[in-house]
What we know:
Layout: H1 2-17, H2 19-42, H3 50-70, H4 75-80, H5 82-88, H6 93-112, H7 117-125, H8 136-162, H9 167-189, H10 197-202, H11 204-211, H12 218-243
Helix pairs in contact: 1-6, 2-3, 3-6, 3-8, 3-9, 6-8, 6-12, 8-9, 8-11, 8-12
Amino acid sequence: MRRFCVIWRRELAACFLSPIAYVIMVVFLGATGFTFFLGAVRNVGAADPLPSLLIGAIVIWLGMLIPVITMRLFAEEKRYGTIETLMTAPVTENEVVLGKYAGALTFLTIVTLPAVGSLFILERFSPGLSLDDIDMGALCGGLIILVLLSAFFTALGLLISLLTRNQIVSAVCCFVAVWLGLLLGWLLSALPGGAGRLSEYVSATTHIEDFCRGIISAPTLVLYASGTWLLLFSSVRILESRQLR
C-alpha cells in the first residue's frame, strides 16, 4: 500500500509540476463553462434539465482532456528509458498500473470538479433562477455517471499509453477511442436493424440522460465498473508480459 501511494503521489506531482497542467485547467474550465452557458441559453423554454446540459458539456471536453492527461503515463517512461528503472524497483506491476491510474484520475477529478460550479454561477447571475429550480438529485446522478465515464476512459487511455512509446500517437489513438466509446450507441443504432437493445445498453448519451434524470441503472454501473476493471487487468498483464521478455 505504501509503494502504491508513492507512485500515486509521484504521478500527481508530475502533473502539477508542469505549467501545461495549469493551462489545461484554465482552457478546460473556460471551454466547459462556455459550452454549458451556450446550451442553457439555447435551452430556454425547452425541457432539458440544467444538470444534463452541464454534464453533457463536461463530457464533450473530457474527450479532449483525457488523452492529454493519459498520453504520458507509460509512453513518456518508455521514451526516456525510465520504465526499466521503475520496474527494477521493489514494486509490483499491480502497484505501478494502479498508482499511475490513481494519479491520472485524481488530477482529472481536480480539473473537472470546478466545472460543476458553472451551474451555480448561472443561478447567481440569472434572474428568475434559484437553487430550488435545480434538481439536486439529478445533479448527483449526473456526477455519478461523470465519475463512471472518467474512470473508464482514464483506464482506456492508460492502456493505450502502455502500448506505444510516442506520446502524440498515444494522444491521437486515445482521442479516437474515447469518441468511439461515446458515440458507440449512436453508431450501432445507425446500422441496419439498429442493433436493438445493445445500442441502448452501451450508449453513453442515453446513460447521461438517464442518470441526469435520477434514473440510476444497475446494469450501467456494472458495465462501466467491469469495463474499467478489464482495462486495468489487461494493462497489468501486458506490463507483466513485457517484463518477461
